[in-house]
Amino acid sequence: MGIRIDVASQHPTIEFAARELARYRSLMTGEPADQPGKNVLRIGLFADLLPEKLTPESALDDVIHIDVRRGAGIVAGANPRSCLLAVYRLLQEAGCRFLRPGPDGELIPAITWSELTVHVEESPSSRHRGICIEGAVSREIFLGIIDWLPKNGMNAYFIQFREGFTFFDRWYSHAGNPSVPSEAKSLDEIRAIIAEGLAAIQLRGLVYHAVGHGWTCEPFGIPGLGWEKVPEVPAGASRYFAELNGRRELFDGVPLNTNLCYGNPEVRDLIVNSIVEYAGDHPEVDLIHFWLADGSNNHCECPLCRDTRPADFYVAMLNQLDEQLTARRLPHKIVFLIYVDLLWAPEKEKLQHPERFVLMFAPITRTYSQPFTPDENRTHVPPYERNRLTFPKSAGENLAFLQPWQELSGGQRGDSFDFDYHLMWDHYRDPAHEELAAVLHADLHNLPALGLKGLVSCQVQRVFFPSPLIMAVLARTLWDRQAKLDDIAKDVYFAAFGPDGWAVRNCLRRMSELFHPAWLRREEPLVNPQQAARLAKIAELFSTCKPLIRANLQTSDLCRRKSWELLALFGEYAVKLAAYCLALASGKSAGAASLLTELVNWAYAHEPELAYVFDPCILAGTLGNLQKDPAQE
């Protein structure tokens, strides 16, 4: 039976959605993508297909409607992005699974399209469902993760800095990779890659977040491309720096980490004017992030500043920014950051128009051994002591800082999200991802109870090794906070590995237990006989899994075969990681450095096979922290 795909609403994103539906239908059925016929599958906006349905006021909100019987019917959305999300949801209901970016990351079943009946009417639990660029990123990785996002119900992508240069430079310069010579690209070449990615973001209708870092550098003639030290700054620039111990200079030589003399009106004007100019030049950006420096405990001690909290200066600049954007009729939303020194709310200043702003809670010093829970015993916020602050680690300590800022930014009416780091460092500390997945799932489930309207994950882009589980937990729980962890895991493991999927999960759950992530987070003594005993069992565990892996390496499905190949590589990785950790837990630290080098070199040697799924860029730094004294950090 021929089924024609009809576009009811003219928009590039909806037309792309129709092409995607035709392409995947052809892959699933073996039939031509373009089919004549009187049976029609219509794709379009509620306004054109279901005019009685209410459309959300905010363009950030998604709603999907699917009513398909015997392969024909309606696929509709509240906005063009929602239409694309609805198409991908229909394909998932038909059996597709978009497990990983890359050519062998998708499970495409063979079906008879005319037998397909699906009815879905949903809006996601979370407004903000995004990823922020981090790690080492190539053009292919960049485009791959952008493509993966809407296929899994995500709606936003965030490119930090004005350029995002540093993340691409890490890949193309191959810093830390002993086996590949540098292929470093110029700033203009990387701008071209970013432009290609931006086109992909716009084609999919994704919410585009931009900048964040750099506003304390660029307006003063200092490039803010990354966290590197610089030998000198432009003449006269240092007069704008924060005064510490009577001196105005770069903080540890890094412009991006250097706070400024925010009590100086000229400093505030230069920053605000720069953001307004950027907004005028970049109508494609939906949310502009305005952050202060990335360092902490380095705020100005001069007479203009020392009696005023950084948060008061920050909110004053936010109000000034809103006034100027309004005067120029620029509609951009501004994301402001609760982070390190800015955890302490202002004493005097208030946001004049909270509707312009989106609160971003960034609990970078938290532990990932426990999730945030709404009934957590919230401690009192400790007194603010300039440049002598100790930052919170427990859930209760972090949440105590959040509430005053929420009251400032409109309470329940205000917009906000969690900017969190589960997949920045801690997936290296739980290499099998099972325990971390449970914490992430609980955090996402609890977001509404914490007054947060979603999450943007600050993370390396490649977190699909040894399985796609934790990225699926991220996407599916943001869409449906009631989704159960075991249900997500069952679906993911069977899709990725086939009938033996649950055996794989059992192996990886045991692996998480044996690595015991709390120890890798240095929440327990480094020299630790109990941890050593656990680590000593990992090689044996992998040996027991080898027959299962060998039996599945020749499976006919390319996606599942790749999953088993990755699992085989993970076993090698886990054994090498366990050897490094065992040396430390056993008190044999003298040989640990060479074992870590061996592990990192192994990861880089296998980067061609792991390119889309595992990022070794910050592996050495994260695991090397085990050897440091926590008191000295």
How many β-strands, per DSSP? Answer: 17
Q: What is the alpha-carbon Rg in Å? A: 25 Å
Helix fraction by DSSP (H/I, runs of at least 4): 40-55%
**Main CATH class of the largest domain:** Alpha Beta
CATH superfamily of the largest domain: Glycosidases
- The SS-based structural class is alpha/beta
Number of self-contained structural domains: 3
Question: CATH architecture of the largest domain, please?
Answer: Alpha-Beta Barrel
Major pleated sheet: 8 strands, parallel, barrel
Approximately what portion of the residues adopt beta-strand conformation? 5-15%
Number of helices: 21
What is the average of the pLDDT values? 96
CA distance, first residue to last residue = 67 Å
Low-confidence stretches: none
CATH topology assignment of the largest domain: TIM Barrel
- The dominant shape is globular
What strand line-up does the widest sheet have? 8-9-10-13-14-15-16-17
Structure explained in plain terms:
The protein has helices at 12-29, 46-49, 80-93, 139-151, 165-173, 187-203, 265-281, 310-327, 395-408, 426-429, 434-446, 469-479, 485-497, 501-515, 517-520, 529-535, 538-552, 558-585, 592-605, 607-610, 619-624, and strands at 3-7, 39-45, 64-69, 72-77, 97-98, 106-107, 118-122, 128-132, 156-160, 207-212, 243-244, 247-248, 287-290, 333-338, 357-361, 415-420, 454-458. With 633 residues, the protein is of the alpha/beta class. The protein folds into three domains: 3-122, Chitobiase/beta-hexosaminidase domain 2-like (Chitobiase, domain 2), CATH 3.30.379.10; 128-495, TIM Barrel, CATH 3.20.20; 497-632. An eight-stranded parallel β-barrel has the order 8-9-10-13-14-15-16-17. Strands 1-2-4-3-7 form a five-stranded mixed sheet. A two-stranded antiparallel ribbon has the order 5-6. 41% of the residues lie in helices and 12% in strands. The mean pLDDT is 96. It starts with a strand and ends in a 9-residue tail after the last helix.
